[in-house]
Amino acid sequence: MSKWRAIKRGIALFLITSVLWGCGGGTPTPILIPAPATSVPVIPTVVRPISTRILATATPAGAIATQFTTTELTTTAEGTTTLEPNVPTENPMDRPFLMKIDRISVIVGRGTLLEGSVVHGSLQPNEPVEILRPSNDSIHTNVLAVLISSALRDQVAVGDYAGILVQNVSATDVSPGMVLAVAGRYDTYEEAMQELQ
Could you write out the DSSP letters of every residue in 69-108? Predict the structure, then answer.
Protein backbone atom coordinates (compact mmCIF):
# COMPACT_ATOMS: atom_id res chain seq x y z
CA MET A 1 0.00 0.00 0.00
CA SER A 2 1.39 3.37 -0.94
CA LYS A 3 2.06 6.10 1.58
CA TRP A 4 -0.62 8.46 0.11
CA ARG A 5 -3.28 5.76 0.04
CA ALA A 6 -2.58 4.99 3.72
CA ILE A 7 -2.88 8.68 4.61
CA LYS A 8 -6.19 9.00 2.70
CA ARG A 9 -7.61 5.93 4.49
CA GLY A 10 -6.42 7.24 7.84
CA ILE A 11 -8.06 10.62 7.28
CA ALA A 12 -11.29 8.99 6.10
CA LEU A 13 -11.34 6.65 9.12
CA PHE A 14 -10.65 9.59 11.45
CA LEU A 15 -13.50 11.64 9.96
CA ILE A 16 -15.99 8.75 10.11
CA THR A 17 -15.18 7.91 13.74
CA SER A 18 -15.25 11.55 14.82
CA VAL A 19 -18.67 12.01 13.22
CA LEU A 20 -20.02 8.84 14.82
CA TRP A 21 -18.63 9.69 18.24
CA GLY A 22 -19.84 13.30 17.90
CA CYS A 23 -23.45 12.26 17.33
CA GLY A 24 -23.78 10.91 20.83
CA GLY A 25 -22.28 14.05 22.35
CA GLY A 26 -24.74 16.35 20.57
CA THR A 27 -27.66 15.45 22.84
CA PRO A 28 -26.73 15.74 26.51
CA THR A 29 -28.50 13.53 28.99
CA PRO A 30 -30.71 15.63 31.29
CA ILE A 31 -29.83 15.55 34.95
CA LEU A 32 -32.67 15.98 37.42
CA ILE A 33 -31.73 17.81 40.62
CA PRO A 34 -34.29 17.35 43.39
CA ALA A 35 -35.52 20.47 45.15
CA PRO A 36 -33.95 20.97 48.57
CA ALA A 37 -36.18 20.35 51.55
CA THR A 38 -37.08 23.57 53.32
CA SER A 39 -38.64 24.30 56.66
CA VAL A 40 -40.39 27.42 55.32
CA PRO A 41 -44.12 26.79 54.80
CA VAL A 42 -45.43 27.10 51.25
CA ILE A 43 -47.87 29.99 50.79
CA PRO A 44 -50.76 28.99 48.52
CA THR A 45 -51.45 31.21 45.54
CA VAL A 46 -54.84 32.82 45.04
CA VAL A 47 -56.80 31.23 42.23
CA ARG A 48 -59.61 33.28 40.72
CA PRO A 49 -62.73 31.35 39.75
CA ILE A 50 -63.47 31.10 36.05
CA SER A 51 -66.85 32.14 34.71
CA THR A 52 -68.86 29.15 33.57
CA ARG A 53 -71.66 28.91 31.02
CA ILE A 54 -74.72 26.86 31.84
CA LEU A 55 -77.27 26.22 29.13
CA ALA A 56 -80.83 26.80 30.27
CA THR A 57 -82.52 24.20 28.08
CA ALA A 58 -84.93 22.61 30.53
CA THR A 59 -88.52 22.82 29.26
CA PRO A 60 -91.71 21.48 30.80
CA ALA A 61 -92.87 18.06 29.60
CA GLY A 62 -94.70 18.30 26.28
CA ALA A 63 -93.57 21.90 25.63
CA ILE A 64 -91.55 22.79 22.56
CA ALA A 65 -88.60 25.11 23.02
CA THR A 66 -88.81 27.88 20.41
CA GLN A 67 -85.75 29.87 21.42
CA PHE A 68 -82.70 28.76 23.33
CA THR A 69 -81.41 31.20 25.89
CA THR A 70 -78.25 30.88 27.87
CA THR A 71 -77.22 32.26 31.18
CA GLU A 72 -73.71 33.00 32.25
CA LEU A 73 -72.40 32.49 35.77
CA THR A 74 -70.08 35.34 36.67
CA THR A 75 -67.90 35.20 39.75
CA THR A 76 -66.98 38.50 41.39
CA ALA A 77 -63.78 39.32 43.28
CA GLU A 78 -65.59 38.77 46.62
CA GLY A 79 -66.43 35.22 45.61
CA THR A 80 -70.14 35.70 44.96
CA THR A 81 -71.73 34.29 41.84
CA THR A 82 -74.35 36.06 39.75
CA LEU A 83 -76.46 34.90 36.83
CA GLU A 84 -76.50 37.09 33.75
CA PRO A 85 -78.66 36.29 30.70
CA ASN A 86 -76.83 35.93 27.41
CA VAL A 87 -78.45 37.05 24.16
CA PRO A 88 -78.53 34.13 21.69
CA THR A 89 -76.52 34.72 18.54
CA GLU A 90 -77.77 33.99 15.05
CA ASN A 91 -76.59 30.80 13.41
CA PRO A 92 -74.06 31.67 10.65
CA MET A 93 -75.71 29.11 8.37
CA ASP A 94 -79.00 31.05 8.49
CA ARG A 95 -77.39 34.30 7.31
CA PRO A 96 -77.05 35.27 3.62
CA PHE A 97 -73.95 34.02 1.77
CA LEU A 98 -70.75 36.01 2.36
CA MET A 99 -67.14 35.21 1.44
CA LYS A 100 -63.96 37.31 1.46
CA ILE A 101 -61.95 36.74 -1.72
CA ASP A 102 -58.42 35.46 -1.03
CA ARG A 103 -57.31 34.34 -4.48
CA ILE A 104 -58.30 34.84 -8.13
CA SER A 105 -57.67 32.44 -11.02
CA VAL A 106 -58.78 32.41 -14.64
CA ILE A 107 -60.11 29.21 -16.18
CA VAL A 108 -59.83 29.74 -19.91
CA GLY A 109 -63.11 29.22 -21.73
CA ARG A 110 -65.13 29.00 -18.48
CA GLY A 111 -64.75 32.09 -16.29
CA THR A 112 -63.03 33.49 -13.23
CA LEU A 113 -62.48 31.37 -10.12
CA LEU A 114 -62.76 33.26 -6.83
CA GLU A 115 -61.37 31.43 -3.80
CA GLY A 116 -61.88 32.12 -0.10
CA SER A 117 -63.45 30.93 3.15
CA VAL A 118 -67.22 31.00 3.40
CA VAL A 119 -68.15 33.08 6.45
CA HIS A 120 -71.97 33.04 6.31
CA GLY A 121 -74.65 31.04 4.55
CA SER A 122 -74.44 28.63 1.67
CA LEU A 123 -74.26 28.97 -2.11
CA GLN A 124 -75.29 26.78 -5.03
CA PRO A 125 -74.58 26.97 -8.76
CA ASN A 126 -76.74 29.31 -10.92
CA GLU A 127 -77.39 31.74 -8.03
CA PRO A 128 -76.94 35.48 -8.61
CA VAL A 129 -74.06 37.04 -6.63
CA GLU A 130 -72.25 40.35 -6.51
CA ILE A 131 -68.64 41.27 -5.92
CA LEU A 132 -68.41 44.26 -3.58
CA ARG A 133 -65.39 46.52 -4.08
CA PRO A 134 -63.88 49.10 -1.67
CA SER A 135 -64.93 51.86 -4.08
CA ASN A 136 -68.55 50.92 -3.13
CA ASP A 137 -69.47 49.74 -6.60
CA SER A 138 -70.35 46.14 -7.32
CA ILE A 139 -70.10 43.63 -10.12
CA HIS A 140 -73.23 41.54 -10.64
CA THR A 141 -72.76 38.03 -12.01
CA ASN A 142 -74.00 34.43 -11.79
CA VAL A 143 -72.33 31.37 -10.29
CA LEU A 144 -71.37 28.74 -12.86
CA ALA A 145 -70.01 26.16 -10.42
CA VAL A 146 -68.87 25.73 -6.82
CA LEU A 147 -65.75 23.75 -5.94
CA ILE A 148 -64.08 22.42 -2.81
CA SER A 149 -60.52 21.12 -3.25
CA SER A 150 -60.90 21.32 -7.05
CA ALA A 151 -63.93 19.00 -6.96
CA LEU A 152 -67.38 20.12 -8.14
CA ARG A 153 -70.00 20.28 -5.38
CA ASP A 154 -73.74 20.89 -5.18
CA GLN A 155 -73.22 23.64 -2.62
CA VAL A 156 -70.68 25.26 -0.32
CA ALA A 157 -71.43 26.23 3.26
CA VAL A 158 -69.98 28.00 6.30
CA GLY A 159 -66.39 27.00 7.04
CA ASP A 160 -65.58 25.65 3.57
CA TYR A 161 -62.55 26.99 1.69
CA ALA A 162 -64.33 27.19 -1.63
CA GLY A 163 -63.78 28.13 -5.22
CA ILE A 164 -66.67 29.97 -6.87
CA LEU A 165 -66.60 30.01 -10.67
CA VAL A 166 -68.35 33.14 -11.97
CA GLN A 167 -69.11 34.25 -15.52
CA ASN A 168 -68.47 37.53 -17.36
CA VAL A 169 -65.97 38.86 -14.80
CA SER A 170 -62.46 39.84 -15.81
CA ALA A 171 -59.67 38.85 -13.44
CA THR A 172 -58.36 42.43 -13.61
CA ASP A 173 -61.64 43.74 -12.17
CA VAL A 174 -61.29 41.65 -9.01
CA SER A 175 -58.57 41.66 -6.36
CA PRO A 176 -57.98 39.85 -3.05
CA GLY A 177 -59.80 41.50 -0.17
CA MET A 178 -63.02 42.11 -2.08
CA VAL A 179 -66.20 40.44 -0.87
CA LEU A 180 -68.45 37.98 -2.70
CA ALA A 181 -72.04 38.13 -1.44
CA VAL A 182 -75.52 37.07 -2.42
CA ALA A 183 -77.03 39.64 -4.81
CA GLY A 184 -78.91 42.56 -3.25
CA ARG A 185 -78.13 41.85 0.40
CA TYR A 186 -75.35 44.37 1.11
CA ASP A 187 -75.40 48.00 -0.07
CA THR A 188 -71.75 48.87 0.55
CA TYR A 189 -68.39 47.17 0.93
CA GLU A 190 -68.07 48.52 4.49
CA GLU A 191 -71.41 46.96 5.51
CA ALA A 192 -70.22 43.56 4.27
CA MET A 193 -66.84 43.98 6.01
CA GLN A 194 -68.60 44.65 9.32
CA GLU A 195 -70.34 41.30 8.95
CA LEU A 196 -66.92 39.68 8.57
CA GLN A 197 -65.74 41.08 11.92
Answer: EEEEEEE-TTS-EEEEEEPPPPPGGGSPPEEE--EEEEET
Summarised one tens digit per residue, pLDDT across range 79-127 is 666 666 655 566 777 788 999 999 999 988 899 999 999 998 999 999 9
Q: Which residues pair with 87 in a beta bridge?
A: none
Q: What is the pLDDT of residue 8?
A: 82
From residue 60, alpha-carbon distances to 57, 72, 83, 123 in Å are 10, 21, 21, 38
In a domain, 30, yes or no: no
Instruction: Say which residue, 70 or 20, is predicted with more confidence.
Output: 20
Phi-psi region of 20 (alpha: psi -120 to 50; beta: other; left: phi over 0): alpha
pLDDT band at 76 (very low <50, low <70, confident <90, very high): low
Closest CA to 95 of 117, 118, 70: 118
pLDDT by residue (tens digit) across 147-164? 988 889 999 999 899 999
Domain count along the chain: 1
Domain harbouring 175, CATH code: 2.40.30.10
Q: Is residue 50 part of a domain?
A: no
Q: Which residues contact 156 (CB under 8 A, 6 or more apart)?
A: 118, 122, 123, 146, 148, 162, 164
